[in-house]
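Sample 1 of the test manifest.
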Amino acid sequence: MSLEVKDLTKTYNASHGKVTALDSVSFSVSTGEFASIIGKSGSGKSTLLSLLGALDTPTKGEIHVDDINIARLSPHKQTAYRAKKIGFVFQQYNLIPNLSALENVMLALEFGGMRASERKERARELLTAVGLEPDQQLRKPAKLSGGQQQRVSIARALANKPAVILADEPTGNLDSETGKKIFDLLHDLSRTEKTTIIAVTHDLDIAGKTDRTYMLKDGKITTKRG
Amino acid sequence: MNVVSRGIRNALRSPLRSGAIVIMLAISITLIVAMLVARSSVNAKIEEVKGSTANQITINPAGIRGGFGGGDPLTAEQVTTVTSTAHIGSVASTLTDQAGTDDTNLTPSLELGSFGQRMQRFETSTGDSNGPTDVIQGDGSSDSAPARPARTPRTTITGTTDANSIASDGSTLTLTSGATVDSTSSDLVALVGKTLAEKNSLSVGSTFTLYGKTFTVNGIYETGNTFQDSGIVVPLATLQTATEQPGAVTSAVATVDSSENVTATVSALKTALGDKADITSSAEQAETSVASLRSISSLATTGVVGATIAGAVIVLLTMTMIVRERRREIGVIKAIGGTTSKVITQFVTEALTLTLVSGVIGIALGIFVSGSITDGLVTSASAAPKTTQGQGPMASAGGMRGTGGPTQRFNQGLQQVTSTVTPQIFMGAAGITLLIAILGSALPAYLIARVRPAEVLRTE
């Protein structure tokens, strides 16, 4: 089992009182599976993703990735975990604007601990794998289309051969055709690289094509498919 | 590309903004360097003035100052008393005399003028200019003279144990040719003032007659002072012997081992010599005279601190603005595995790059303008020391009539502050530049540490 979530709860103290963003959420995803999480705005999707990605710590519960409970890691180990075990794909792509596509991928490799001499070659391989031409690899994000930027983002996420890729609305900013291509790319990667992918999406069509779908409502998983 | 090269590259991310920041910072650093140079130069001058004069005590025989007054010169015993007083390191003793036409074959180079005539108005002329003088004889031999000499200019002879004591700026006497004399000897050698030498066509090795003896010119000196450059300097013992005044001294300048001991030493000398001598120290006068320089030093220190704070605030505001702008980028770097320390290192490198570029420009500009800024500060603050100057030759404690003593000497040079960029100033400016970068980066670093990577998931 690649990812197992048990009784995950996250509460915040807001000005109007205590807010429960996630309420005793439990689920599991096997290695190489492509799972999707759907839900309305405010249902707790982003909170769940931030906890799975060790960007935040839960109030209660456990998250096991390859038998490590990441919910109890120190901040320092959380950072190392993110660098080596997690790949992020964001709706806004979130590439570093003054670095080229190649350098954006190399940055993730640097944080993953790869030797400097090997980074460029590995980054080229990844960008080629996601369909970026050599001349496009040297462009800065502003000179790339949305779909190309998202491909760079996916290459960056794959850089350190992570156990899990967490995608936050990966097609949310793309037209339907490009969105479909990006989805297919992620889907193929989950098969070829045996990488677990968990994607948060509004797109029910896309969710329907994933191996497993969870619906979140008011911080609780209400429906499960697959 | 590592974290440092990313930081350097980020510094050039917005050329227009970076340029504006560099200009503002460079101005701050220019001011810091100029103030450091001014402070260092003024402090050096203060130390020079205090070191050269503030620990000096002048002992004049009671009633005698310069070439005026009356009374008995100090005796050898009294000079010995001075020399043996605690805390006194060295004593420069001087005996002055004036030689008339019958004392020397040299032609005086000073015109008598109305002042000289008034000074000699009690001397009645017999028409015999070769008669003995009643001015130079301290033993009362003028009583035997049948007539007073004609009113003629005299040549001032200074016998001293330190030939440098007649230098107008208190430093080493400038010789235009030849070598100095051994002031401790009783040789018949002399240093001749440039004007007198030219008047009498004297050069090194020339001889002339003085008090019936043949003296050899050892060197020609130049002080820039017309009176002094018309005189002769010989060893003290030589003049004492030639004028038959064994042990006589008309002025002694004692150097105390430390300026802190000057007051106590003055008291000790007054007790030892009683009413036989007038004792003055230049410590208080020196302190008053350097007061304006101290205020410049304080002003420069304030300027350094102020410019440092201004520089740090410029960096701080700039980096805070940059961190706020790139908050999402910081979140992304943290989300993909970048440690907080790496992100801070990147931003500190960016701040350091901006500061160092500004530092290079600022230090170069600062060195360029420091001279004129120092001059401006010294000139603008010179009103105060001027009030302590202009005390005239009568107030001087030097051995020659009208010759400036230590007080006049340090007042003359007070405005001559030479601005010098020392390695210490360079290191200080570089250190302050680094301090600006560190202080300016502290708050941004704190802000960076507070950025939560989860923020990156917020949809704009």
